[in-house]
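Q: I'm a student working through a structural biology exercise. My instructor gave each of us a protein and asked us to get a predicted structure, then write a short paragraph describing it. Mine is Remorin C-terminal domain-containing protein. I'm not confident about reading structure output yet, so if you can add a plain explanation after the tokens, that would really help. Here is the sequence I was given:
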Amino acid sequence: MAEEEPKKVTETVNNVSEPSPSLPAPAEKAVAAPQEKPVAPPPPALVPIVAKEVEEEKKEGSINRDAVLARVETEKRMSLIKAWEEAEKCKVENKAEKKLSSIESWENNKKAAVEAELKKIEEQLEKKKAEYVELMKNKIAQIHKQAEEKRAMIEARRGEEVLKAEELAAKYRASGTAPKKLFGFM
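A: Happy to help. First, here is the predicted structure for Remorin C-terminal domain-containing protein. I'll explain a few features afterward.
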């Protein structure tokens, strides 16, 4: 009898189209034969649910399969679109970075050129400044030389005039006459 019970349980599991006429039978046999160790029947709630799901799958199998395939196709398409979008964004970012990099290098080159030109002009100005400083020093030296020459001429003239005045004074002393003009007052 114990052999029949597992067969009935497997029949109900294997033969899902039969709702559950065999459920009361195992319970009656288990009660009728208390000396044998009864096999616990499957819970009544599980068998009907499994049977209903299998029945629904058979009835709506092609509809569900089409819906699932359509959903999978849609998900596949959406993932491809997302991948394409990411790739395009990546391309745009790389392109922008490349352009920004080229602009930055252009800017650096132009700055370096301007700084080199500025340095060149500063060097030219320093050269010109040095030339002008030397020129001005030469002018100052020339002015100093001319001033010294003029001082020397004045000193020489003064010395000549002093000698001349001494000679005239000696002449007037020797002759005993007085000069006609005294101190420029007469």
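A: Here are two points you could use in your paragraph. The first helix runs from residue 4 to 14. The chain has a mean pLDDT of 78. It's a good idea to check both against the output above yourself.
Q: Great, thank you!
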